[in-house]
Amino acid sequence: MNNRKYFGTDGIRGKVGEIPITPDFVLKLGWAAGKTLAQHRSRKVLIGKDTRISGYMLESALEAGLAAAGLSAAFTGPMPTPAIAYLTRTFRAEAGIVISASHNAFDSNGIKFFSAEGTKLSDEIEEAIELQMEKPFTCVESARLGRASRIVDAAGRYIEFCKSTFPNEVSLNGLKIMVDCANGATYHIVPNVLRELGAQVITIADKPNGMNINESCGATNLHNLQQNVLTQKVDLGLAYDGDGDRVMMVDHFGNKVDGDQILYIIAHEWLRYGQLQGGVVGTLMSNMGLELALKRLGVPFIRSKVGDRYVLKKMQENGWRLGAENSGHIILLDKNTTGDGIVASLQVLTAIVRNSTTLYDLCKDVKMLPQVLINVNLRNDNDDPLKNNMVKSISAEVVKTLGGHGRLLLRKSGTEPVIRIMVEGEDDKQITKLAYKIADVVKSV
Length: 445
Description:
Number of helices: 14
Strand content: 15-25%
Distance between the termini: 25 Å
Oligomer: single chain
């Protein structure tokens, strides 16, 4: 049962200036997290952020809260979320914090936490932080207050880490790659990684101004990248989201390559080279086409709840090293402890070079079933139409209509006030009609 008031599936998120994304709330959150997470080792907490203008305000509030709890903050500046997971481990920090709302617009922001081991916090620890927030704010004596510092070589450290996950015997020489940085945290990382590995790189959406993050660009909006891949005649395109923990791709024909296809490519390549340990974890949203393609390879496949924390949990339970969401969160446990868009894309590039092939050809064996996704906005977070009898009735009717040749998934988002409706099946027109039929009922209640 989820007893958390503020934490969703990926930290705490909301509109800037509204609870919980206000300076006073974040001040106390920093204090509560410091009290809860401190193991009295380094007494240092890393703080990274994406390129949103509100990041300056929120990192100051977090730093003050941590200092009051007796912990010191070390700032990295704009850095991808997986970089903070990596750096938290290498600096032996008490915890890592990322200020980001991932794929959302600039006027939203959020706070994500990593443990000392570089993993997302468990539900139990998030609940403990919320319980601590109910207590009166206190301050340690002056001699024990935390300090603030800046890690000046954070970007260079992470660039070298990313390059270390790419095989020494392989080079990207001869590959022409278009990169969409979403005007986010990867803008000064990805181009350097790829160029240092030999690729010719053309960048778009790589000039963040604090307000253009994810604006008509990045992993959630591939239109510009698709157009540029075709006009610039590049070999492929890579698109990251605002905080760089997810990646989507575009082949040289302008076709979208999503997280399911990326997962298949990596699984197939690892299987080919004896690197695949056990099977692969997807989510309830993973396309049936992925499941069938992996089955043909003899690769076990299981589904978790939506959210990379749940993918990771299933991987750990089974002792597996590869899992992903179709949104582009790819977790490679032998390389990093969380979804890492840059490292995942390097695995796909490895497969392209090793096999002297194209992204298009690597996707050929995955026949994706048509899938329709609709988001229905909620008036507030407390609304839950999924408990309504009319919604239950129409859902049962749709499942019966699909007759075992498709899937229906309705769920309340953990990051936005919306109900997500997914209908999957063999007939595009049929599933579109069914999806909108459900959406109309959800809106009406």
